[in-house]
Amino acid sequence: MNRIPKTAFFCLLFILSAFLYGMQGNHSSFQQEEPKKIYLLHADSSRYLKENNPDVLVPMGNVSFRHDSTYLYCDSAYIYINQNSLEAFSNVRIEQGDTLFIYGDYLIYDGNLNLAKMRENVRMENNEVTLFTDSFNYDRNINIGYYFDGGMLVDSLNELTSVYGQYSPETKIATFKEDVTLENPQFVLKSDTLMYSTENKIATILGPTEITSENGIIHSTKGWYATESEESTLYDQSTVISQDGTKTISADTLYYDRNTGIAEAFSNMVINDTVRKIILMGDYGYFDDLNDFAFATDSAQLIEYSQIDSLFLHADTLQMKTLGQEREVKAFYGVRFFRKDLQGVCDSLQYNTADSMLYLLRNPVLWNTGYQITGDTIKVLLNDSTINRFYVRERSFASEEVNETYFNQMKGKYMTGYFEGGDLSLVEIEGGTESIYYPIDEKNMEFVGRNKTESPYMNIYVANRKPVKIWWGPEPVAEMLPIPDLNPDQKFLKEFVDFNYLRPVDRYDIFRTIEMKEEDKPAPRRQRTRVQ
Length: 532
Description:
The chain is mainly β. The protein is built from 1 helix and 40 strands. Strand 24 (301-304) and strand 25 form a beta hairpin. The longest helix has 18 residues, at 6-23. It is rod-shaped. The model is unreliable at 1-32 (pLDDT under 50).
């Protein structure tokens, strides 16, 4: 043994002891770290609370302590030596490192639990972050401080108040609950539960929240809000209300920039213009509040609800824009719309509130009750969103289904229809007009025959959704044929097509994917050759 160096011997003894301790099955594989003691560093004077009882020491005057890497200062204290704890009074200060300082009037500090309980006029400082409260606990084990009876946290940009709040100096993350208010020079945020990063100034929304500014209001229950740039990502049908309070946008996911007023929406987007009574919907959308522009695509739908019966319109892409005091709506590709008194399909559509005119472009078909109207272009004049009249330009054609076999038909170059109370009352046709009409014997309820007429002009007067009078222009040419004598080709005017297979039957049918048959599409019009 004398030949073995002492250092090597003690190392060997330590390893052997550790091995034997690890072999004992009734002990833990590791020992819990012993609590560090609180050391009194300085006091102008000190005494025991009770003579001949060293359990409680009372230091006074410029008192300072050290516990691990934390330093504590006060005017006077009680040191509970056996419990490794203390009470500190007046001008209490805790310092941890060179970045964390906690001030207060009274402190209970437990060295075994590493827990500080600061009371009255509490102030915590961590770089640019300051926390104010009257009841504050700081748990050194997890490096988190928290208040539970009201407090305020202030950094270089925002001021946050709540009933409960906690802050981690290490992560720079604060969490607030109950009556949370974040005040910023540009907005005020009120919430039930909020997480806030003092490092990047981002607020994470964890409960019902309202953000109010001069640019509008945000309602959300989940998401984040960058308080410096005022950009946000919001979830779970969050809602942004416009500056004037007349427009709202909501979606499952919503990206919103308050400075630019631009929102980008994904899934179940809804934009509601309460002044013009228009709702724009889709699974993707874009909204520019400052320029009053919006569009929707992917299951896009527009609802016009100014009347008892709303208009439901679908297209691949829908667009709304404000021009001065007026609103312009455009729909592109695969347009289908339904209202109880009006249905239609076309490739593109435009509506202007300035002239209350609805434009149907490229292969348009319009239905009103029992009438079908087609042409190169159809314009519908609305009066308080009820149909007032329609205009058809070039290759105008109107038909009425009498039964599955017979159709009243009229065609010409131009056609104008007038409505009263939502029902067709007069149709004016000009430019090489032709008509086929099947008069009925009211007594026997049988067809009299087929009446075909050609003339330069034609007027059809309608009452109770039935023609009651027809006027033809100068020198009309008419032909009446009995029903039994009719050939199949004589039943229809040239270019007649029954487009009923395209007609939307209800508000949900506007999403049905169906295209006009190739054989039913009108032949392209010949372009005029320009004379050089």
